[in-house]
Design a protein that fits this description.
heterodimer; A: 170 residues; alpha+beta; Glutaredoxin; 2 domains; 12% strand; B: 824 residues; Rossmann fold; 5 domains; 7-stranded mixed sheet; 6-stranded mixed sheet; 25 helices; 33 strands
């Protein structure tokens, strides 16, 4: 874990409003097998699953907290730490790899000061290496949230970061 | 039954059996790591692969495949042996080969199979894991580096214990067993996970590096804590009990234990044990000889009726019978009792009238045969955890219905489909009466109920208990009461369970008769899976009742004895193992009684608060150092033999009583075995039993029932004045009586007294978890640590009674509910 990320985990979690979790639970409370939809909705609502939310879901759904944690760590779709506003994904699949994806990844690491699956302290960026985004013709490929950037170069990394640094957080 | 062939042998097996079970039944051993006979098949380890001819020689797991007619199975062809070797090679790839320092060595399934299959080299290489070892608690060490991911720990914690502390975390090669958010273990510490771990991943820390497994001698015994009557195997080395050993074939509970049974054994070899008799000289207790001490005691026992005695129901049947004989025949007193005089009332006054015998009409085995369990107080889990496991299994595996009447929620309330009716504290009898009335009025009672004696009187006595009236007083709705009544009547087999004990003064004769009335009205007694089961508190509570160590006609009961001590009519008190200063109600009253006494004799394992007040202290043996029988709460009489030699200067209670009988001019059978023959001859249900006949396994002492309806008196509902809370006392999961205070295991997990309160009250009085709060009642006040839990309803607080450092009897004088104030 890089130094930046280590600092970030020691920061206090922001105050979590459990009424959102309650609304989600109320919606699914009578559905058999409701754990997955509740966790997915909580992930969408909070951006990640805070500890207190997991405990609250465990208490209200009468599921062991350990079991919830088992589910959260099994599926890649769930996150246990706050995520950035902008999720940068760089493909490191075979096609992108041969087209120079490792250099793109290194450049993002250097410019953002974070590593794989880490988030900047200002919660603006989260960076992830992914195996394949399914658009090998555009290799090397990067995505920021839902926008796609094909034919990536080191210069384009700078442009993307500058662009998204100026975008509003709210 | 199904016919099949295993390794060219014609065998039969039950239709529901798996190949593994069929093979085991017929003496064919199939190697396996992920199987325990109490758990559902899982098929994780792939060691039990066998070939089935009908399946074209494919290798299939024996533990998950059901048998079919005509199956031809081969369990150890060269191909299978090769496959198993490969499985072992893959497991050993990541498993650290630290067997020389691993406590599991010698008892390790992986080690034994590696030896058996001669896996002396590995064709593969890979890095070992580097997981941090969990040392966060003093009882269970978790070393995930050794784990083979059989999942038994996580499954037993879910399927039987129903706590769910452990689970599979992460995915693929990174999968490991752990707790939520990678925390350390924080659970009930029953150690079930340790008992089933096939490798050294989960270890008992108190036993760590104490002895090699093969250096232990194994002694079968019976647990000395609660009335469940669990069987234990004690691991002994150099005359010290070092651990408890799991045996899945032992007892009705198949080796399953709770935290007290598994980790509470340390009191046996505690350094704080008394080692010589003590006699008070010039106001101080000084070491003495047995001769001097017993001569002094014998001299005082000549006082006849000014002598009284209290004995703990932890003594053996033989000891209690001999103590009674000493008191009645040689001393000439009728003043003796046990368990504060009221903890046995459900049996001696309740069931004795309702069923015609001072015993529960059901056994623990009935839980697995019942369709509906009506549990009074969720505390049944805390007082008798292994009975709690049986309830868990009945509900989760068999789909038995669970209805709970309780003044607080508890672990049982979390079971699937469990119905918890939260009522105001102290109103159990009124609710049971209301249910009885619904059964009668709504014609849900069985046709034969009218023929039982006392029916007309019961109908009359219940006239005031309409569901509507009771509902307004107890805080649950009339509809819920009616629903419970119709559920109970509709269930083919239904069992009522409630705990009894010194902290449950409300669970008295009235509660027992009220519960019995429901069983009698619906004909749900004397049948498999039906009846009423009173969970007695101590290991031999039922035995003490069977031996007649209860108030006699014209004699005093325990609380009256204390009053008589205070007013001077009892001058000499012999206390065998009880600790009234901690466990009896009203500390001030007990203190006053001891102050006024002329002479107090205490026979004890430890210098308890009570023993410290004595004129003579006699050091005695624990259950591991003596022979005898205990009778469990469901009247299973079990024989146990000493596991270790007693130290030179201590005696068994049996030896003390028999010495005193001789000094007073009487005669006693020289051994407990001979006395037991006398007991067996005259105790109903014990006929034909002897130490020899009980040696292999315990036997139930059957009870003949003579049903009768008794109209129970319902106490007036408790209403707290404004600003006051209702204090209910009880047992903490980790403790039993005051003995567990000397067990290191229970004390590690639950070291001090506390008061549990609801979140609503906590925010009302601005109290946070762990705050030191002042709890005050009309009789006193004390400081306790606060625990804020979601299980308590607003207005109700709970505190257990086991702790001599902060005894709850400072503020509790024996009523089921006490009004208290809680402030910071």
């Amino acid at each position: 874990m890089s130094e930046v990320a280590a600092q970030q985990t020691t920061e206090q979690d922001p105050v979590i409003d459990l009424s959102l979790a309650d609304a989600i639970i109320d919606k699914y409370i009578d559905l058999p097998g409701n754990l997955m939809p509740v966790l997915q909705a909580a992930q969408d609502g909070y951006g990640y699953i805070p500890r207190i939310v997991a405990d609250h879901i465990a208490e209200r759904l009468n599921v062991y907290p350990s079991q919830i944690y088992g589910v959260l760590t099994f599926y890649a779709q769930f996150h246990l730490k706050p995520r950035g506003k902008f999720i940068i994904r760089v493909c490191v699949g075979t096609a992108c790899h041969v087209q120079g994806a490792p250099r793109i990844v290194e450049t993002f690491f250097d410019k953002l000061g974070i590593g794989h699956a880490e988030t900047t302290p200002d919660l603006r960026f989260t960076f992830e290496k992914v195996a394949c985004l399914g658009a090998c013709g555009m290799a090397p490929l990067a995505m920021v949230n839902d926008s796609t950037y094909g034919g990536m170069t080191v210069q384009k990394v700078d442009e993307i970061i500058t662009d998204y640094r100026q975008r509003p957080m709210k | 039954m199904v016919n099949l062939t295993i390794d060219d042998k014609q065998v039969t097996a039950p239709k529901s059996a798996t190949i593994y079970e069929a093979a085991t039944l017929n003496g064919v051993k199939i190697p396996i790591l992920c199987h325990d006979k109490k758990l559902l098949p899982f098929g994780a380890c792939r060691m039990c692969l066998v070939e089935v001819e009908q399946m074209k020689g494919r290798q299939i797991p024996a533990c998950t495949t059901p048998v079919t007619e005509g199956m031809i199975i081969r369990t150890s062809t060269p191909d299978i042996v090769k496959a198993r070797k490969m499985v072992l090679e893959l497991l050993l790839l990541n498993h650290p080969l630290d067997c020389p320092v691993c406590d599991k060595s010698g008892d390790c399934d992986l080690q034994n199979l590696t030896y058996e299959y001669q896996v002396n080299s590995n064709r593969f290489t890979d890095a070992k894991f580097n997981h941090e070892i969990d040392y966060n608690n003093p009882l269970i060490e978790r070393d995930m580096n050794r784990c083979v991911l059989c999942g038994k720990c996580a499954r037993i914690c879910d399927e039987i214990v129903s706590f769910g502390a452990l689970t599979f975390i992460d995915r693929g090669i990174e999968t490991k067993i752990g707790c939520e958010f990678e925390e350390g273990l924080n659970c009930e510490f029953c150690g079930s996970c340790i008992s089933v771990c096939p490798v050294g991943s989960l270890l008992a820390r108190p036993f760590k590096h104490k002895a090699r497994f093969w250096a232990l001698t194994k002694h079968k015994s019976v647990c000395g804590y609660c009335g469940t009557g669990c069987n234990l195997t004690l691991g002994v080395k150099d005359n010290k009990v070092l651990t408890t050993i799991y045996d899945e074939n032992q007892g009705f509970h198949k080796g399953q234990l709770c935290v007290r049974g598994r980790f509470g054994y340390q009191f046996i070899s505690s350094e704080k044990r008394l080692t010589t008799p003590l006699v008070r000289k010039n106001g101080r207790l000084v070491e003495s000889t047995w001769d001097e001490a017993l001569e002094l005691v014998a001299g005082r026992l000549k006082g006849g009726s000014n002598v009284a005695a209290l004995a703990t129901p932890r003594l053996t049947n033989e000891e209690l019978a001999l103590f009674k004989k000493l008191l009645v025949e040689n001393v000439g007193t009728k003043n003796f009792d046990h368990a504060a005089g009221y903890a046995h009332a459900a049996l001696t006054e309740g069931f004795a009238r309702s069923f015609g015998a001072a015993a529960s009409s059901a056994s623990i085995l009935d839980i697995q045969k019942s369709d509906l369990l009506l549990v009074i107080k969720t505390d049944s889990y805390e007082t008798h955890p292994v009975v709690g496991f049986e309830i868990n299994m009945a509900v989760k595996n068999r789909g038995a219905k669970l209805s709970i009447l309780s003044d607080k929620r508890g672990k049982l309330s979390k079971l699937p489909q469990a119905q918890t009716l939260l009522h105001r504290p102290g109103s159990e009898v009124a609710i049971l009466n209301a249910i009885a009335r619904v059964l009668i009025v709504d014609k849900l009672a069985s046709a034969t109920a009218v023929t039982i004696a006392g029916y007309a009187e019961l109908v009359k006595a219940l006239s005031g208990f309409t569901a509507e009236t009771v509902a307004t007083q107890v805080g649950i709705s009339a509809a819920d009461i009616k629903k419970l009544a119709s559920d109970y009547a509709a269930a083919e087999k239904a069992l009522i369970i409630f705990p009894a004990g010194q902290a449950y003064s409300g669970h008295n004769a009235d509660l027992a008769t009220a519960a019995a009335n429901l069983a009698l009205l619906t004909g749900k007694y004397d049948k498999e899976g039906c009846g009423v089961l009173c969970l007695s508190e101590k290991n031999n509570s039922q035995g003490a009742v069977d031996m007649g160590f209860i108030p006699q006609e014209g004699g005093l009961n325990a609380l009256q004895i204390l009053d008589a001590c205070a007013d001077g009519s009892v001058k000499t008190l012999f206390i065998a193992g009880e600790n009234p200063l901690t466990s009896y109600p009203s500390l001030a009253k007990v203190k006053a009684a001891f102050e006024a006494l002329e002479f107090l004799v205490v026979s004890e394992l430890f210098l308890t608060e009570t023993a410290a007040k004595a004129d003579v202290v006699l050091p005695v043996c624990s259950f591991a150092e003596k022979d005898g029988t205990f009778t469990s709460t469901d009247r299973r009489v079990q024989y146990f033999k000493s596991a270790i030699r007693k130290s030179v200067h201590i005696k068994t209670d049996y030896e003390i009583f028999s010495n005193l009988v001789t000094r007073l001019g009487g005669a006693v059978p020289p051994t407990p075995a001979l006395l037991f023959n006398e007991i067996a001859a005259k105790t109903p249900g014990y006929q034909g039993m002897s130490h020899v006949s009980l040696r292999k396994e315990g036997a139930f002492a059957p009870v003949a029932t003579k049903p009768e309806f008794v109209a129970p008196q319902a106490a007036a509902p408790f209403t707290a004045e404004t600003g006051k809370l209702a204090l209910v006392t009880g047992s903490a999961l980790y403790h039993n009586g005051t003995l567990s205070e000397h067990g290191e295991g229970p004390m590690h997990v639950c070291p001090e007294n506390y008061v549990e309160l609801s979140r609503a009250d906590a925010s009302l009085y601005k109290i946070a978890e762990g705050d030191l709060v002042t709890v005050a009642s009309a009789t006193g006040s004390m400081q306790l640590k606060a625990r804020v839990t979601p299980r308590m309803p607003a207005g109700v607080v709970f505190s257990p009674y086991h702790f001599s450092e902060a005894p709850i009897n400072t503020i509790w004088s024996g009523s089921p509910v006490t009004a208290v104030t809680v402030s910071k």
